[in-house]
Amino acid sequence: MKRLSSLVLLCALALPLVFATGVQAVVLEGVGHASIYNGDLETARAEARKAAIRDLSLQYEARVSTHDTMENGVITESRMRLASSARTRNVRIIDEYQSGNLLRVVVRGDISESRGQCHAGESSRLKKQVAVTGFPVLYPDQASVGRIDDAGEILPQQLQQRLMEQGGFQVFGATTSRMFTDLLNAPTVWQGNNQLTNVLQVAREMEVQFVVTGVIRDLGVADPSAWGTSVLDRMQRGIGAVDQQRRFAADLVVYDGFSGSPVYQQGFAISADWDAGPGRSVGFGSEGFRKTAYGRSVNGVIEEMATAVTEALACQPFMTRIARVDGHSVTLESGATAGLRPGDELKLYRSTAYLDSPGATQELNDSQLSVTLDRVQPQTSRGTMPQLGGIVNIQRDDIAILW
Predict the structure, then answer these.
(1) From CA 219, how far away is CA 248, in angstroms rounded?
(2) pLDDT in tens, 197-252
(3) Domains of the chain
(4) DSSP-assigned letters across all residues of 342-380
(5) Is 398 helix (H, G, I), strand (E, B) or coil?
(6) Do 364 and 85 touch, CB atoms closer than 8 A?
(7) pTM of this prediction?
């Protein structure tokens, strides 16, 4: 007979400079190493940076869990898992050293307790459907240096790719869609129909639960005159006689696709050297852009954005629309690709609108009923509920929720 025992220990690896409580952020430095294969320095740098961020998180707070398997009183297997509950922001590389094929990177960042932790239930195993739309640039003229005017489309594409790599979502791209008409005041301006943006329409058309969008507010260089094409301008840049810093600032917003309400909003900003000469960087996602110190810092910000989205949605329930009701039978707009399986039980909510508030967010009212799935296909699923849909007024476009 095998017996399983586990022990969970919480430990704080305290440093002399750390006296944080609650979610107060502190500034720490972390070190990471990576091997360079086939001369691919960029990939090695990215891996070293990830390792350094892990080092940051574990310095702040870590959870150690051991998992032992015993047989006849003897431990036959022992595994240890080390995980961090910390959240990092504004991470930047402050030192880099290469020795042969080994790369050493030192990063500095703000670190605090993760706000994304929760005791998620059954919904944690399901893949919530997320659409990533365009991030329009507030001041397009700022993109002329380096010709990065495609930033509004490339940034959300890279964000979409990172969310897909994490594997916890069904991610759909709509990077040419624009959520806001007033970029300067977005996302705080309401439209005339009492909706914040056209997020509800996008969510309905793409059949997603959440919409991720934002605005790029700053791509400006500190000294525009430093980027002339004359011989003198080039000499001054070469000897570091001019300010080559460039700013990046963007707002990230995550909307609930059923109500249109924002569930997360955060601003991100960095400043780093734009060390690319004229013509060496063409495009926000170009190789020349990625090789600049500025490009590496922006890449770090996009990673932070992906982490922020994941944390913001971790505790949200799984929601899907009802596609059809026929007697006791209920068909949902989500299926096996979202992780649903036969036997799953979802609560049914009636979606209610009021005639005296046209265009207002619909309210969800608990029907006190559930649907139990008995047939699951890739994009849809079907189940039964204990009462007839016509009697309890459950119909198309109402909502099923798994917590």
Answers:
(1) 5
(2) 578 888 989 999 999 999 999 999 988 877 666 666 666 666 666 788 999 999 99
(3) 1-115 (no CATH), 120-316 (3.40.50.10610), 318-402 (2.40.10.410)
(4) TT-EEEEEEEE--TTSTTPPPEEEEEEEEEEEEEE-SS-
(5) coil
(6) no
(7) 0.70
